[in-house]
């Protein structure tokens, strides 16, 4: 079995809070679609952006671009009355992950170690916010702990 090639990149995992409870509310669909129309669709991101139900995943080689794009998504959602919770990490991402659609099958790729790390970090946050994991934060401060 061939091992999948990986790259070291930044990843932000965002979760729309209360999605399951609000999906039937009047206007909720419009709020969700406004994030896509105002922030996702108009821009040609150098980052990869995945929207999967109540999750948004942004992957980039550039930390500043990742933060700017995630802040834009976060602030647009907040302006629409949607709260997001997310986490940023740096780690292994499977190289060239693409969504494949064949007939009635859609395969969303396994994004790699960084996705799992960010997902676990997001689950531990107890408020609407975007946090940076300690290892990534320390990397910017020049510390190795």
Describe this structure in words.
The chain is α+β, with helices and mostly antiparallel strands. 37% of the residues lie in helices and 29% in strands. It has helices at residues 19-22, 28-40, 63-79, 113-123, 134-141; strands at residues 6-16, 48-52, 55-60, 84-94, 100-102, 105-107, 130-132. Strand 2 (48-52) and strand 3 (55-60) form a beta hairpin. Helix 2 runs antiparallel to helix 3. The relative contact order is 0.22.
Which geometry do the CA atoms define? globular
Task: Give the DSSP E fraction (strand runs of 2 or more residues).
Answer: 25-35%
Strands ordered across the widest β-sheet: 2-3-1-4-7
Beta strand count: 7
Radius of gyration: 16 Å
Low-confidence segments = none
Distance between the termini: 35 Å
State mean pLDDT (0 to 100 scale).
81
What is the N-to-C order of secondary-structure elements (H for helix, E for strand)?
A: EHHEEHEEEHEH
What fraction, in percent, of the residue positions are helical?
A: 25-40%
Largest sheet: 5 strands, mixed
Structure, briefly:
The chain is of the alpha+beta class. It has helices at 19-22, 28-40, 63-79, 113-123, 134-141; strands spanning 6-16, 48-52, 55-60, 84-94, 100-102, 105-107, 130-132.
What attributes characterize this protein structure?
two-stranded antiparallel ribbon; 5-stranded mixed β-sheet; alpha+beta; 145 residues; 5 helices
């Amino acid at each position: 079995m061939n091992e999948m090639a990986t790259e070291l990149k930044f990843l932000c995992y965002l979760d729309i809070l209360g999605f399951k409870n609000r999906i039937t509310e009047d206007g909720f669909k419009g709020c969700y679609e406004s994030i896509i129309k105002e922030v996702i669709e108009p821009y040609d991101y150098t980052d990869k952006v995945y929207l999967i139900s109540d999750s948004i995943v942004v992957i980039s080689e550039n930390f500043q671009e990742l933060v700017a794009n995630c802040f834009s998504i976060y602030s647009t959602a907040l302006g629409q009355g949607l709260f997001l919770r997310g986490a940023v990490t740096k780690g292994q991402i499977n190289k060239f992950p693409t969504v494949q659609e064949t007939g009635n099958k859609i395969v969303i790729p396994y994004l790699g170690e960084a996705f799992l790390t960010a997902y676990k970090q997001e689950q531990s946050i107890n408020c609407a916010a975007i946090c940076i994991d300690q290892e990534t934060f320390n990397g910017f401060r020049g510390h190795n702990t």
